Each structure stands twice: as C-alpha cells, then as structure tokens.
Amino acid sequence: MGTPGPEFEARPPGQYAYDFPDTECDGWSTPDLGLRFASVRGAKHRYYRQPRQDAARAAVHEPTGSIVFAVADGVSSATSSELGAVEACRSAVERMLHLLSSGEKDLDHQDVTRYAAERLRQLAVWRLGGREPEPGEVAGLYATTLVAGVVRPGPAGPTVELCRIADSTAWVLDRSRGTFRALFGSKTSADTLLVSNEVTPLPHVPDVLESATVRLEPDQALLVGTDGFADPLGDGDGLVGALFAHHLAAPASPAWLAHLLDFSRETFDDDRTLLVIWPQWEAVPA
Q1: Which of 30, 43, 45, 124 lies at a CB distance of 3.0 to 4.6 Å from 133, suitable for a disulfide?
Q2: How much is the pTM?
Q3: How far apart are CA 69 and CA 57, in angstroms?
Q4: CATH architecture of the region 23-277
Q5: Sheet hosting strand 33-40, strand order edge to edge
Q6: End-to-end C-alpha distance for the chain, whole angstroms
Q7: How do residues 43-68 score in pLDDT, each as one tens digit?
Q8: Helix orientation angle between 254-261 and 239-247, rounded to the nearest 10 degrees
Q9: Are 70 and 57 in contact (CB under 8 A)?
Q10: Residue extents of the structural domains in the chain
C-alpha cells in the first residue's frame, strides 16, 4: 500500500502468549444484518516477539435479532494489555446481552463500561493473589481502549448505539459513494494540528462517555476499529480508504477481510482490528 514496510517472517510471541494468535477473524449473518471482523498482529509486535494486543467480540441477541459488539486495543505500557483487551470485550458483550434481555430500550453505556472495568479489577485481584489492587495497579496490568455497542434491526432500518473509551473509533461507510463519516473525533483529521498518542483507557470510566446513535441506510455499513486501522485510514480519502471502500461494498469472507487488513505500509506497524456490520446484504465471493 504505497511504500510498503520491510518484509520479514513473523517471529513467535513469548511462550505463554499462545492464547493470543497472530490473526483472528469471524463472520456470520442474521436475516437482517451481516457481520465480519478481523484482528491482525502488527509488524512491530511480529518483529519484537510480542502478542497481538487488539481484540474483538460479537454476538447475536436472539430474541431481538440485534448484534452486540466490542472492539478493544490493549495499551502497550500495561504489562498484560492483551488479556485486558480480550476481557473488556468479553465482559462488555456479556453485559449488553444481559441488558437487552432485561428489556433495555436504550443501552446504558455507563453500566456496560463500568461492568467491564469491574471485570478488569477482579482479574487484577486474581493476578495479585487475592490482594486488593492499589490505585493504578489495574491499569498497569490491563489498560485498554474500548468501543462497545449494539445494532438493532427495525422497520426503518438498523439503529446503532455505541460508546467509546480512549481512541479506538467508528465510522459509517457510504458504500455507493465510497466515503467514510467518523462517528467520533479523530486524532488524524485534517484540522488536527498535533497528533497525540495519550489516552485515558479502561479501567477509568469518565463521568460523561463519548457516545453516538445513528440509523444505517441500506447503502451504508458500520465500521469499528482500533487506531492501527484508523491512523492509516485518516479521513478516508487516500489509498487505504479507496481499498476498503471498494472491498467493503459487500461482505466477503472473514479470511479475506483479515488479508485486506494485513496490508503493508511504511511507518504503520501497529496491530489492526476492524469490525463491519452491513444491513440488508447479499454475500459475494472475494
């Protein structure tokens, strides 16, 4: 993609990182929605023998046909952020399924994120042999970004409700025009003067969460991704945007999405995760 990064054979992560494979992907459909996601280890982690620190999880809420999802990016300064990312996704999806089954009309984002933060605290207690963590210890072990939400089918089209903590983000792709509309502020947008990598991740939950609600039109798709995808995408008007707008016009196989996400471009060497949900779709071969 443009000027590629160096080519090399990926090195194995540490011997106890076997639960975090280099590449992970999934995909399925309901009568109303189609889903694909993929997560790939970045070149930096492949070279320095570190595990992939991104994660994604999704599930269908069978009584309503809704899809709940979570995407997370473990913060590199945390010692076990790969586990924090997975647990944040698992617990967020678990809690959203529970809330939907309880008849929640509007998703309680504070409830979901605080539940995920509490799961990380419990994980830290286990890691510390039953001792209550000191301030900052949970983040030092498991700090992670999180985007969590639900897509609910409806007669007027699917409705998306989502929230985020830190800098993983989401877009609406206009498949007919090939344009991306960011649902949250971007650190790489055209009016950003200084790019900062500082984030305030989970287990911190702000009093006011960033959230968004949007209805998907038939020619649109929801994209949720970590900054390993967001940074090279930028405003979506470059080579990366053109590639993904073309190939996400309709769902292909999960393995093909993972292949696309594993593009090589100079200076962009972070883990990449992308989750995509399409309304009223027809599958096409890659």
Answers
A1: 124
A2: 0.94
A3: 6
A4: 4-Layer Sandwich (3.60)
A5: 23-29, 33-40, 272-279, 220-225, 169-174, 179-182
A6: 19
A7: 999 999 999 999 999 999 999 999 99
A8: 180
A9: yes
A10: 23-277
